[in-house]
Amino acid sequence: MSFQVEFKGEKAVPIKEGQTILEASLAAGIPHYHACGGKGLCTTCRIMVLKGEEQLSPLTSYERTIKKVRDFPDNVRLACQAYVKGEGLQVQRLIRDETDRYIFINNKEESNIRVIGEQRKLALFFIDIRSFTPFIESHLPFDVIHIMRRVFALFRNAIAQYQGEIIDTAGDGLYAVFGLNTTIKKATEGAVLAGLKILEDIKIFNNTYMRPYFKHTFEVGIGVHVGQVVVGNVGIGLSNNLTVMGYPVNIAARLQASTKELNNSFVISERAYKLLKNPPYSHGCAHLQLKGVSNSYEVQLIGKPYETIPKYTRPKIT
Ligand code: FES
User: Residue 312: what pLDDT?
Assistant: First the structure.
């Protein structure tokens, strides 16, 4: 059996029994935003029911959860969760201004079925070069670029060796993920092995290259965490690069930043550490109160104390 749903200001759309409102609107060519791919995990497909509410299927558990969190009124539904039982339904899409339209359509025909991301559990890896600013200040710009390339080649090789993927570079650091094609346990092991390899490679690089030729040595800070993130392309920038976003990414970045105050070059969250089959030796654990994060985080220190960085006020390490 099939019915019609009227999208106010747009068109009347045929809908079959067993088809969600989102599926019907997309099939009819409406650029209906659906960031999570119709899984009930975002709110971008939401519609306001103007008439015929009694023709809709009951709320799904996803809708109940989202309504609770976002406090939506009763006549707001997720189009990807709602089915239609009869005639007389009139709805209005709620996310549909010109900017949304541009992001969504982006002049590509296939874009109206495009999903911007999927949820994945990944190991998140942040690394930053310490003591790079003094090096820049005291060396010629072309030398700085040359050395930077050498150091980033070390990072890249180690990350690739353990199946990691670099997501972004910024200044003297980068951000990578592990686990795009593997389990979270293997991903965490990969992230830790890549980090330990980089620590070892930097030591060799300092002894064989930096100290003799540039009278300088580098140290790095590494932070690793695991968590559920959204992997996709949010369409920021000119290229179609992979983007990985989510709260655990911020935590991983903060762990990396905490390496200074903890005076240890490799800080891993307890949650990630527990996933390791053969965890490396830990110099102790600490409870970190991270800026902007309400819970304190238990972390393990699996790197080395810094040699050249002044000692900061340190939290209690047990
Ligand atoms: S598309 Fe994400 S909740 Fe419907």
Answer: 46
For residue 45 and ligand 1, the question of a CB distance below 6 A is answered with yes
pLDDT of residue 111: 43
Q: Which atom belonging to ligand 1 lies closest to the Cα atom of 80?
A: 4
Ligand 1 centroid from CA 117, angstroms: 11
Best CA proximity match to 178, nearest among 169, 234, 166: 166
DSSP 8-state code for residue 10: S
Domains and CATH numbers, the chain: 2-113 (3.10.20.30), 118-301 (3.30.70.1230)
**Mutational test site, ligand 1, from 26, 33, 44, max ligand atoms within 8 Å of CB:** 44
Instruction: Give the separation between CA 224 and CA 260, rounded to whole angstroms.
Output: 15
| CA 172 / ligand 1 centre spacing (Å) | 37
pLDDT of 292 reads 67
In contact, 135 and 147? CB cutoff 8 Å: yes
> 133: which 2 tokens?
């600013």
Positions in the chain whose pLDDT score sits under 50: 105-114, 237-239, 311-314
Q: Which amino acid does the sequence have at 249?
A: V
SS3 164: strand
25: amino acid identity, one letter: S
Q: Which run of H or of E encompasses 49?
A: strand 46-51
Per-residue pLDDT reduced to its tens digit, 126-153: 999 987 888 888 888 888 888 898 899 9
pLDDT score of 117: 67
